[in-house]
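2 proteins. here.
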Amino acid sequence: MTKFRDTKIEIVSDKTLSDNWYHLRNVTFDYTGADGETVRMKREVYDRGNGATILLHDPKRDTIILVRQFRMPAHQNGHSGWLLETPAGLLDGEHPADVIRREVMEETGYRIDEVKLLFKVFMSPGAVTETIHFFAATIDASIREGEGGGLDHEHEDIEVVEVKLDDAARMIETGEICDAKTIMLIQWALLQRK
């Protein structure tokens, strides 16, 4: 029997610190561990909603479709901020498969019908509530219905990039690809070859 089954969590207070674009809360709780000792703890919890991401793979060309866009938090942490990523979007209460189909069209210009759910992951569970649904889809990279690039009214400035899967693996090693969800999907694709 694992010890976590004997723990108890009781929320004492849940205060909103920021309710701007996303929500930042300060949660105070009593944590009773498996040993029976109760400790009062505080944690800041960032709630930005849940999301979905997808690996678009063209098996004939052995390429994947990525998007390059600016990310302010990465910029603030010493990076240029321009990250190569798999297409992704927030759910906002919608079904993950519906969201990812729409986001792929908006960001890349590719229309996809069939998507395969791979797994659902907490990306940074020590501070962020977000879970991401990971998908994969097979495409023909030579057939694109739209320009992609994101939505003008959301001020998205997205570049669509086609990369050989082996090159993408090397780009992880060099740091050119440093987005966690993208690395996870590339590694998943590489494992499928075996």
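next one coming up
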Amino acid sequence: MLALAGCGLAHFGGGAVVPPEEAIRITPGDGARAVRAAARLAVTVPDGRLERVRVTRTEDGGEAVPVAGRLTAHGRDWRPREPRLMLGARYAVEAVAVDGRGRRVARHTTFTTVVPRHRFIGYFTPEHRSTVGTGMIVSFSFTRPITDRAAVERAIRVTARPHTEIAAHWFGADRLDFRPRRYWRPGTEVTVDLRLRDVRGAADAYGIQRKKVRFSIGRSQVSTVDAVDHTLTVRREGRPPAVLPVSTGAAGHETYNGRMVVMERLEMTRMNGSTVGFGGEYDISDVPHALRLTSSGTFLHGNYWATPGTFGAFNTSHGCIGLRDVRGGGERTAAGWFYGQSLVGDVVEVVNSRGHRVAPDNGLGGWNLSWPEWLKGSALS
């Protein structure tokens, strides 16, 4: 689906060039916070028709629940069946529209509703019952700054079967991550036990969550990007390494060095330089096979606009890692193959780049801290 990214415009309705946010209008707006319960949730298209709308709601940082809704007879509007929004929830909206010529445009937006006064919630990753890669880090983002970090840290217990040493690390007042000393063993079952209800995290602010979240560790896959050799080497247990040609960040926009973790998988996304400080240098509406590696906008993605000779020979991007692809995304391309082989939680390490080392709080970058450094970030150490 379409999401703002860091590395388009859609032809829609009679050949006109329309930005995706105009072709598909979603309210509340993308990234809106503290949205009131009475706010209007709507998806509309001024021209063409909506082909598919999927809305999910995550309450208390738990499992995503579908939100029921319906399309109007002409297909230009979607409305939820329940008029009021749930408080203390995160909503995600995915919409695909098509014009009279069969051309599609997609959008993906999120917003969060207001949390009742004197309460806090920890939104977390990964999702309940998910299967993730061996580099997954359990990460909490709190809706209020936490001043009593020790109390909150004690109220969250992360355990694994088989037994694994796991420790916590605070990044500022509103983020708490958990990771093992080394990558998870494949097949490990992880349980996150949240006992935050009535725990005092700050002055007159108490937690409301009490639940258990479980996820599984899948096969091991660790990939290494060499910015000098222009290669991506994929190592998966029991298989010989696969080497793919890539293009990384050009001079002045070098790709981060260091270990990054796949945060999300997007079959198609928009990459707009204006969202990450590059002005109007690029705006590509249909980047295929995109794997987000950092919060700041580093992706490993398919690239159909560069000449084939670019991959394996030149670094040309604004910091992303590009694999050869075709418009719309091809299953048999290098990008399509790697996307199909990847899980959220897989590790991608970049070496020999002239860029800075990725910050440990940029995405799930905690693997760039040594174990002693990681342990110092605990409020209980």
